[in-house]
Amino acid sequence: MTIRVLIADDQLMVREGFSVLLGAQPDIEVVGEALDGHEAIAKVAELRPDVVLMDIRMPGMNGLEATRRIAAERQDEAGSAAPEGGTRVLILTTFDLDEYVYEALRAGASGFLLKDASARQLADAVRIVAAGEALLAPTVTKRLLAEFTRLGAPRAPRMDRIEALTERETEVLALIAQGLSNGEIAARLFVTEATVKTHVSRILVKLGLRDRTQAAVFAYEIGLVTPGG
Q1: What is the chain's Cα-based Rg?
Q2: Fold assignment, 3-134
Q3: Would you place residue 80 in the very low, low, confident or very high pLDDT band (cuts 50, 70, 90)?
Q4: Handedness of CA 187, 189, 193, 196 (dihedral sign)
Q5: Is the pLDDT of residue 84 over 80?
């Protein structure tokens, strides 16, 4: 299946560069470009891409606000259940700052990548996000942990927020927050990867979350997982 990508960036050279890099991949097709957040939202509605490569700093509406609106639209279309399809956002930026990582994930982004990433890293990131297997790369996890440390984590876990989860689902949620993939979680718990996928799907549905990236943020916010813990 071909992954349809929309590139949203106010710099022509960046858009053209990404188009060339991704266009060379046999399973990825660049279906459109956008100059700012407003155009990105309009193009998503028109083209229904699988993934949007979204710059953060753009004139008019920035990438964070555009991501919030795209994610909200995706959530509305799916109802209370966790969406299987829909457009996912991969944030691209030259600014390796804690505030952008945190705000991008809070806005509903499924991934975060610096613009100096290699062509292979970019293509792999698009594939991961398109597959719904969005997870926090180690470097991003470190910045996210730093941000939660700065903000201050809850003193005690808010277990009332996850009463609907089983003990195993709670364990899986904690491992998601640590940045583990489905395969790594399966190895850690001595279960099949298919079983992990089932647990992840149930967690997202029960908690009304968009994807595993939002689940990771949620786990930190309620104190289930804490920086350094």
Answers
A1: 17
A2: Rossmann fold (3.40.50)
A3: very low
A4: negative
A5: no
Residues 6+ apart with CB under 8 A from 67: 54, 89, 91, 104, 107, 108, 109
What is the distance between the terminal CA atoms of the chain, rounded to a whole angstrom? 40
Residue 38 CB coordination number (10 Å) = 16
**Domain ranges in the chain?**
3-134, 147-221
CATH code, 147-221: 1.10.10.10
Q: How far apart are CA 102 and CA 13, in angstroms?
A: 27
Residues 218 and 98: their CA atoms lie apart, in Å, by 17
Residues 153 and 227 sit within 8 Å (Cβ to Cβ): yes
Pick from 63, 67, 66, 6: nearest CA to 33: 6
Q: How far is CA 29 from the centre of its chain?
A: 20
Residue 223 has what pLDDT?
Answer: 81
User: Rounded to two decimals, what is the model's pTM?
Assistant: 0.72
**Per-residue model confidence (pLDDT) at position 196:** 94
Tokens 């399809």: give the residue.
Answer: 85
Q: What's the CA gap between 147 and 112, in Å, rounded?
A: 15
Express each pLDDT in 136-187 by its tens digit.
Answer: 555 565 566 566 656 655 555 567 778 899 999 999 999 988 878 888 899 9
What span, in angstroms and rounded, lies between the C-alpha atoms of 78 and 168? 26
Per-residue model confidence (pLDDT) at position 52: 96
